[in-house]
């Protein structure tokens, strides 16, 4: 049995279901999830070889492959191997219900120059909010706690954290769907791991995409509901809403593993709005960032 060290931000219900159905064991795999405190921390562990692969935002892969001025000030041959989901409810959340109350508030982000922060900036811009301050507060679960405890006035949440925040009285102000086609999570790995552990990564991709297809088709419902309650600390109602999100054709799981050209363009456009280094989708694609040789991510 091969153990895969997989970096995650929020606990993965997809991985949990794949484990409970026995799909991972049948493929000869055990997944050890390694929670990230922030995207720079996650990529530091990935680039140092402590992680075999990561579930991460695609913008992070762009930053650590194409832009030397990323938070770690180093680039590497990191590749997107498969698209995993369309954001899983990714939305702007606030302790205030009225948009006008967002003026002058503190926006909590993972880091100010990363994917979810770019989503927050764009959604606030659409709402006509420009007078806000920004503070790095780490991963999505950490930002959930920061929002609920009053450490920030607004942030972006998803993957069950959004549902926990709503249950605690936070308000969903705007969704990433307003920004165009979007991929919230991809499976990524170093090129070195792709070359040396192709069978392991190919098996992992196959299990995740097959399990995603089964969930989208309505299989494993009771198992998935229980997994959401167990892994995400959701009640029965919130777990049902989470499962509906997993099955959603826009925000949910992506059984094909394909990151569409339109989704790539959205990610790059959001970064370009806030970056001094302009990227084009063609340049990013030409860098070899997408590797579909293992069975996922190709358009």
TrEMBL record:
<protein>
    <recommendedName>
        <fullName>ABC-type nitrate/sulfonate/bicarbonate transport system, substrate-binding protein</fullName>
    </recommendedName>
</protein>
<comment type="similarity">
    <text>Belongs to the bacterial solute-binding protein SsuA/TauA family.</text>
</comment>
<keyword id="KW-0732">Signal</keyword>
């Amino acid at each position: 049995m091969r153990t895969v060290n997989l970096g995650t931000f929020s606990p993965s219900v997809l991985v949990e279901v794949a484990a409970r159905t026995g799909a991972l064991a049948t493929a000869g795999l055990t997944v050890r999830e390694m929670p990230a405190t922030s995207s720079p921390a996650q990529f530091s562990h990935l680039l140092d070889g402590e992680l075999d692969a990561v579930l991460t935002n695609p913008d992070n892969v762009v930053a650590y492959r194409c832009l030397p001025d990323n938070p770690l000030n180093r680039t590497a041959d990191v590749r997107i191997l498969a698209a995993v989901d369309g954001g899983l409810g990714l939305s702007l959340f606030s302790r205030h219900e009225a948009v006008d109350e967002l003026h002058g508030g503190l926006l909590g982000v993972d880091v100010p120059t990363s994917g979810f922060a770019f989503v927050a900036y764009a959604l606030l811009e659409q709402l006509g909010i420009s007078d806000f301050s920004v503070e790095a507060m780490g991963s999505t679960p950490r930002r959930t706690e920061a929002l609920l405890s009053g450490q920030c006035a607004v942030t972006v949440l998803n993957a069950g954290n959004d549902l926990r925040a709503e249950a605690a009285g936070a308000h969903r102000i705007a969704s990433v769907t307003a920004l165009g086609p979007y991929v919230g999570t991809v499976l990524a790995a170093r090129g070195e791991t792709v070359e040396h552990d192709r069978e392991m990564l190919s098996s992992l991709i196959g299990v995740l995409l097959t399990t995603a297809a089964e969930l989208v088709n309505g299989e494993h419902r009771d198992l998935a509901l229980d997994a959401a309650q167990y892994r995400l600390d959701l009640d029965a109602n919130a777990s049902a809403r989470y499962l509906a999100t997993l099955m959603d054709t826009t925000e949910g799981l992506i059984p094909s593993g394909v990151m569409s050209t339109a989704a790539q363009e959205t990610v790059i456009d959001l970064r370009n709005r806030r970056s001094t280094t302009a990227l084009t989708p063609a340049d990013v694609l030409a860098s070899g960032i997408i590797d579909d040789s293992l069975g996922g991510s190709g358009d």
